[in-house]
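Hypothesis: this fold can be encoded by more than one sequence.
Test: take the structure tokens below, design a sequence, compare later.
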């Protein structure tokens, strides 16, 4: 019997923002000279009790589609659902299971210009569906595991942070962590950046985690999630670098109150008997703030960098060429711990660790 258990921390500890916090953020010299935008929730999808399709368990992804509907992936319920903006369920894509087009532990979802891509960790595969939800194909030869950190593009491809393992190389075992574009196979179409990993003693060592976003003209943008580096890089569809912002930052300690906060721990089990996800509260192990928390690109090509350096949620908004244009601040109508999905099709947010119940926020920008 094979058994894999993975444990990861999936929490953002954020502080609500308002006028005072906006003033604190704007005290930073480079931010003081730009205008401020505000993000507000105009509606939500999800209820505490009631219609089964609207009672979520563990949201791991949500995104607008090209036709204005909303895709929602619930890992614990193992469902990929499509809603209209009023919250009416239009479609449920695929089913829980082990057959073609079915999934057991869906942890990643990407909306592309031609449909949906779903990453099933337990099934060791990536499944593709057409825009109408019909099963298209699945790719199963990724090796140890498929990429689970994925995001869509306006084309038929998707972006991924993916671990590539080669145990048959002439120079011995090789491990590589890459940021790449994938389409019709497990081989990347374009590799934008890669990092060789140390495999001494049979253990892999890499602390690099990325946020990724696809632009309206096929650009691929990455941001490194680090406590000591601010890094945002934009690439053309062919892999040429458009701009790079990379600066070393001083580490910013978490407050005493934040260090006492528990964090959400996710235990994922895969065995011959099936797969499961369990969530627990654990003492947090990090000591410093993550400089960048997330990334997105809107329909104007502006790049939205979600910041974590102040403890107050806000965004730095850049032009497609890398010029700082604005800062943007949630107005308090969105959960403090929310993850944002900003794409050329629209703005959404969702909370993996809600204080009340899971929901998706439909977000607008007040400029």
């Amino acid at each position: 019997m094979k058994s894999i258990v993975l444990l990861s921390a999936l929490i953002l500890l954020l502080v609500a923002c308002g006028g005072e916090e906006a003033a604190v953020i704007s005290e930073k010299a480079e931010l003081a000279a730009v205008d401020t935008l505000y993000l507000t929730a105009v509606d939500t999808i999800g209820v505490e009790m009631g219609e089964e399709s609207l009672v979520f368990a563990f949201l791991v992804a949500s995104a607008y589609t090209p036709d204005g509907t909303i895709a929602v992936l619930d890992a614990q319920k193992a469902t990929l659902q499509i809603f209209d903006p009023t919250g009416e369920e239009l479609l449920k894509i695929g089913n829980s299971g082990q057959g073609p087009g079915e999934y057991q532990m869906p942890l990643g979802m990407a909306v592309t210009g031609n449909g949906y891509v779903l990453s099933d960790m337990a099934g060791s595969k990536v499944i593709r569906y057409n825009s109408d939800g019909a099963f298209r194909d699945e790719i199963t030869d990724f090796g140890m595991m498929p990429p689970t950190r994925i995001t869509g593009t306006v084309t038929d491809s998707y972006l991924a942070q993916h671990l590539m393992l080669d145990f048959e190389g002439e120079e011995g075992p090789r491990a590589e962590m890459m940021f790449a574009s994938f389409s019709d196979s497990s081989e990347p179409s374009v590799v934008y950046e890669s990092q060789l990993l140390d495999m001494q003693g049979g253990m892999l060592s890499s602390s690099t985690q990325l946020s990724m976003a696809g632009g309206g003209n096929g650009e691929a943008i990455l941001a490194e999630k680090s406590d000591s580096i601010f890094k945002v890089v934009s690439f053309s569809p062919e892999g040429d670098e458009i701009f790079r912002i990379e600066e070393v930052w001083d580490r910013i300690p978490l407050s005493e109150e934040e260090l006492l906060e528990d964090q959400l721990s996710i235990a994922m089990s895969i065995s011959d008997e099936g797969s499961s996800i369990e969530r627990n509260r654990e003492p947090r192990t990090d000591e410093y703030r993550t400089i960048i928390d997330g990334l997105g690109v809107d329909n104007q090509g502006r790049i939205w960098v979600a910041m974590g350096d102040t403890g107050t949620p806000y965004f730095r908004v850049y032009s497609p060429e890398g010029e700082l244009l604005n800062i943007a601040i949630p107005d308090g109508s969105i959960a403090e711990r929310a993850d944002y999905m900003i794409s050329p099709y629209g703005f959404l947010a969702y909370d993996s660790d809600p204080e009340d119940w899971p929901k998706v926020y439909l977000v607008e920008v007040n400029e």
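The chain has three helices and 27 strands. The radius of gyration is 20 Å.
Hypothesis status: open.
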